[in-house]
């Protein structure tokens, strides 16, 4: 009898060559998983770089079609629109959020006309429109939940009427999903989906985004009375349960990479389409380190996106969407 070889199980066998690795891969990232967040601004004929997000820019509406054409050709399913509102249009109540002629609504009408196959995601919260940078209106020194809901309902309806397919409330007010669903349904907008930023944490990783939309310098204080404490995980499940009960069609965890454990728990518990937002600070970390030659941009990007799939995500909002889709197309 020959001596049995040791070790009997060699997991490295399935890693021997590229084709075996492909055959045995448990997860795969595809272009259909990507949502591309884009920044739009007022003015004409301008593409302006966001300094803290190398490679990301804000575009005026007359440049928008050209800006997204390539993404459409690559087959990216959806865009998420974020406005940089001119300071002159900001006030304490976020009035511009209710204007059917605001940047988001104009962009949505334009994009729907030019690219009917693109899904459009509209962020719902007041921070791009308030002069204090908070996601809701302030009463006393508190971001007032119920008064804010009144505005979010209107903001959601005008966005949906302009062509936004997925309303994505990112404000973290309690009860918003139910109120938004009711407001949409009352207008007959029964097909408008809701992707709630269900577990959104009070995070340091939003810094570059706030530069991009111009809400950072304005922000008074922090958002800890409404965004979640990074210490908490059970609470994320309560947030998600509430949002599903109120009518959310999809849920999101945000930020992404530091919260993969939350994604996994949410997906395992609820089995709903679960998304992650790989936020501006995560993008900046990878882009910044790559710019210094400290990591390989493409490999770090693809690894980070695959990690979201492994954690249970249906898809990812990522500033890398176009670049990742190019890599996927190359194969
Ligand atoms: C608005 C909103 C924020 C982000 C998305 N929607 C900022 C915030 O909550 O302060 C951050 C996205 C990013 O950092 O990429 N409520």
TrEMBL record:
Signal peptide positions (record): none
Matches recorded under PROSITE patterns: D_ALA_DEHYDRATASE
Top enzyme class: lyase
Catalytic reaction equation(s): 2 5-aminolevulinate = porphobilinogen + 2 H2O + H(+)
Pfam families tied to this protein: ALAD (PF00490)
Enzyme Commission code: 4.2.1.24
NAD as UniProt keyword: no
Biological process (GO), any one: heme biosynthetic process
InterPro entries: ALAD, ALAD_AS, Aldolase_TIM
CDD domains in the record: ALAD_PBGS_aspartate_rich (cd04823)
SMART domains in alphabetical order: ALAD
Binding sites annotated in the UniProt record for Mg(2+): 239
Entry similarity comment: Belongs to the ALAD family.
Annotated NCBIfam families: PRK09283.1
Protein name according to UniProt: Delta-aminolevulinic acid dehydratase
Provenance organism: Plastoroseomonas arctica
């Amino acid at each position: 009898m020959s001596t049995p070889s040791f070790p009997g199980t060699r997991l490295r066998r399935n890693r021997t060559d590229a084709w075996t690795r492909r055959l045995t891969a448990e997860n795969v990232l595809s272009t259909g998983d990507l949502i591309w967040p884009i920044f739009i601004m007022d003015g004409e004929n301008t593409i302006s770089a966001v300094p803290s997000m190398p490679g990301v820019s804000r575009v005026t509406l007359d440049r928008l079609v050209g800006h997204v054409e390539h993404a459409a050709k690559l087959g990216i399913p959806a865009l998420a629109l974020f406005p940089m509102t001119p300071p002159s249009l900001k006030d304490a109540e976020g009035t511009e959020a209710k204007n059917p002629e605001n940047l988001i609504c104009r962009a949505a009408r334009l994009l729907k006309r030019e690219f009917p196959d693109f899904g459009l995601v509209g962020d719902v919260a007041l921070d791009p429109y308030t002069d204090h940078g908070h996601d809701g209106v302030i009463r006393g020194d508190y971001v007032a939940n119920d008064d804010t809901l009144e505005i979010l309902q209107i903001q959601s309806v005008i966005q949906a009427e302009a062509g936004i397919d997925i309303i994505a409330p990112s404000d973290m007010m309690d009860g918003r999903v139910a109120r938004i669903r009711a407001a949409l349904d009352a207008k007959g907008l029964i097909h408008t989906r809701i992707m709630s930023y269900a577990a959104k944490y009070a995070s340091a990783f939003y810094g570059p985004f706030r530069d991009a939309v111009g809400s950072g310098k304005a922000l008074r204080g922090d958002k800890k009375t409404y965004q979640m404490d990074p210490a908490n995980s059970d609470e994320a499940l309560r947030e998600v349960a509430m949002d599903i009960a109120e009518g959310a069609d999809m849920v999101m965890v945000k930020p992404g990479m530091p919260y993969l454990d939350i994604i996994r728990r949410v997906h395992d518990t609820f089995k709903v389409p679960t998304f992650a937002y790989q936020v501006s600070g995560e993008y900046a970390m990878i882009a910044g380190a790559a710019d210094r030659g400290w990591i390989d941009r493409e490999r770090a990007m693809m690894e980070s996106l695959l990690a979201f799939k492994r954690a249970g995500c249906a898809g990812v909002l990522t500033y890398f969407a176009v670049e990742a889709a190019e890599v996927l197309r190359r194969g």
